Amino acid sequence: MMRIPYLCIVRNCKAVQRVQQSAFSTPISPQWNQQRIKLRCMCTHLSKNDRNYYITTPIFYVNASPHLGHLYSAVIADCLHRYKLLQGFNSKFATGTDEHGLKIQQAADAAGKDPLSFCTEVSERFRHLFRSCSISHTDFIRTTEQRHRLAVQHFWSVLQNRGLIYKGSYEGWYSTQDESFLTPTQVGDALDSSGKEIKISLESGHRVEWMKEENYMFRLSEFRSQLLDWLRGNPEAVQPERFYQAVLQWLQEDLPDLSVSRQRSRLQWGVPVPDDPEQTIYVWLDALVNYLTVAGYPDKYDQWWNEAHHVVGKDILKFHAIYWPSFLLGAGLPLPQAIHVHSHWTVGGKKMSKSLGNVVDPLERSQRFTTDGMRYFLLRQGVPDSDCDYNDDKVVKLLNAELADTLGGLLNRCTAPSLNPAQVYPSFCPDSFPSDQSGRAVAEDYRMLDAVKSLPAVVAQHYESMHVYKALEAVGGCVRQTNGFVQRHTPWKLDRGDSKDQRWLDTIIHVSLECLRIYGTLLQPIVPETSNKLLSRLGVQRGERSWAALNFLPRYQGMDCPFEGRALGSDSGVLFSRLESPNAGKGKPIKTKKAAKLR
Ligand code: ME8
Description:
Structural class: alpha/beta
Shape: elongated
Number of strands: 18
Number of helices: 20
Bound molecules: ligand ME8
Distance between the termini: 57 Å
Helix content: 40-55%
């Protein structure tokens, strides 16, 4: 049931890239070429299913408008989806809205709307946000859809037929905000705003209530050892490590059977239990099945389901790493390939909340700082292992430094008509970069070539493990090295009347454009619009932007370069306009003097 071939493939691909990187600074040997071909074959001889990839975000509650955290999960998954597409995978990317349950029923009541109209309205806000932020999901599921209702009822019947659901009586604590049952040790005392003593969930801080009712129970307690076997046999099943350990720790504690329905009299807004209209299916069981619904369950689903990867926030880890695998084991279905967990965004060091008035509106920010700007910031600053604090000033400083000045400045320099009057991808002169390092290039330049050559493998490894910030750190380091290369050789001081100087000038620009081509290609999953602008300016066609096209500086390896002599793209506009500090005045992105000058 637990399959590992995909991980083996990834490792093999990494092996190819490792071989490539170590061999770059020395002439290519026939043995290296042979090994490269052999390893490539291992990568391409994959069965059709092994080229499928399925990534999901949580489906979001529609009791309130989307906030920054929701966009963050969507951007992480979108980045992975785009990366897999670049690698030639068939990738399915699902997101959507979680529309059933007591919380939604109460929110609709409070808004004076019927639940479905209320859900439709808020669900549309999520869709709109994702559309505005270049989230390229291939499916957007709403749990109120008929296809989902059928999947949930089918899934329930399978569990019931396998003897895993029984009628019982549940008595215990329940948090409506979290739609979660809690054991006494998970509950603590607190005071509400009027000073009244209340009980709260120690984990989320949300209020809990005592609940006693007849409902259906799932035999969760039977799955502890199977869950432990799964986790121990698949140390990458829950990532990062910190969260993997947390799940193992939970499994040391009591794992009571789980209530999986509510009495219809209390909860009408949900999927009825098959053959028992007096009971409504527990919203978490309903919600988790969305991942199967999108895969095509109960009909043909295995081609996607066997490749499932979930991106989730740390708040819902238990539901995904304990309940969900137990339900799947109970239904006789394969478990997800990996659960990628990320931490939370805070504001001013505090959890975002309406009452504190510190909720960050992602739509407004993406309009203010641009879509690519917000995507870049979230992925560059977001660290899966620990919480990050959001601050507008930080956004402006980071984007100005890394996208506008360093990357934009490099492109601007290398394509400026003063240095490149013919506006072409100039020629590379091998004599300037001889492999015995006796030409005009210095040792630092060769180190830069090595770094850029190995960059795709480094970035791929970080994308795979969803440490996107590390990928961006690596790209940023190389961009700085390339800027240093240009700065070191001051091409603007070379004598164009001298043919040797002209060849060296062309080589400097050729190498720099090759670096930029690699950066633009690797950054596509993060900043799709900016990458498109960059690659178009370099004259790189759509079909030349895949991972397979990342063949850095082929002329140095004695191969032809398809770009040499090609006309640059005509859009010479600023790559990323500098933003004004929020303190200096609010509003749209502002082109400052420096940005105007770069043009
Ligand atoms: O839990 N920082 O929905 P939800 C980062 N419907 N990410 C955050 C965040 C923050 N401050 N706040 C929320 C639900 N998120 C269920 C999920 S899935 C079958 C059902 C993100 O609207 C993060 O991914 O409360 C978190 O897990 C999710 O939004 C919770 O969204």
